[in-house]
Amino acid sequence: MLFLASFLALYFELVIIRYLSSEIRIFAYLKNLALIASFFGIGMGMIRGRTNAGLKRYFPFIAAAIFLIIAFASPLKLTHVAFPIGDYITPGDMPSLENDRWFGVRLFLAVLEFLIIIPGMMYLLVAFFEVLGAFVGECIQQTKPLRGYGINLAGSLAGILAFTLLSFLRLPPAVWALVGLLAGLPFFLRIRHAVLAFVLIVAALTFAHPHTYWSPYYRIDIQARVLGQLSGL
């Protein structure tokens, strides 16, 4: 179980960092925030050394919230959340509004959106990874130190290699989530709603990106005009 817990922690870390930065573009510029949140959550869980029963029970809902927010970032108008200061200019930022009488209101709403989305997602990620870290901490306590450290490294490396392989094969986020959630299912067999939540996540991700192609490095959207030209060939 230690190998599996270590696999899950590193695997989901890579999944969420890539998926989050692809769908909510501000995280492409703030990748370290997702990395810090995952490390912080894993560290808290390992220090605790045991699974918080309440947090574990709500883990399927936390996972569903994270993946559904990311998958439906575009219809939720979260793809182009803007930096609320002028020091950073990113695609999708607000145009200049100095001559707009509602400039103050729009600026306030932009700042409020930033302060809700960024910290809110960080809290969800910390809670998500705290559960995974607790699995690692709980399992490693039941293993001899040197052996446990070796198994932990092997599981972590396996998680990295697994996601690297899925990316290389150009598989979509639904498959990323499916592999991770299936691997994590043994830890949630006693939680009845876990399977339902995991199925919901995979189903939502399957239909969230109907015309999207995932290369090993990028998300590529195929527009309707391009599809029409291709069908005419």
In brief:
This protein is an all-alpha fold and 233 residues long. Helix content is 70%, strand content 3%. The protein starts with a helix and ends with a helix.
Q: Strand-residue fraction? A: under 5%
Oligomer designation: single chain
Q: How many strands in all?
A: 2
Low-confidence stretches: none
Rg measurement, Å: 20 Å
How many domains would you count in the coordinates? 1
Q: Which sequence of strands runs across the widest sheet? A: 1-2
Provide the succession of SSEs. HHHHHHHHEEH
Shape: globular
Biggest sheet architecture: 2 strands, antiparallel
Mean pLDDT: 84
Helix content: 55-70%
SS content category: mainly alpha
Q: So how many helices?
A: 9
Distance between the termini: 52 Å
Features:
globular
Overview of the structural elements:
- The protein is an all-alpha fold and 233 residues long.
- It has one domain (2-231).
- It is built from 9 helices and 2 strands, in the order H-H-H-H-H-H-H-H-E-E-H.
- Strands 1-2 form a two-stranded antiparallel ribbon.
- The chain is globular and about 65 Å long.
- The termini are far apart.
- The model has no long low-confidence stretch (mean pLDDT 84).
Topology record:
Blueprint: H1 2-23, H2 26-29, H3 31-48, H4 53-71, H5 103-140, H6 145-168, H7 173-184, H8 192-208, E1 212-214, E2 219-221, H9 224-231
Antiparallel strand pairs: 1-2
Helix pairs in contact: 1-3, 1-5, 1-6, 1-7, 3-5, 4-5, 4-8, 7-8
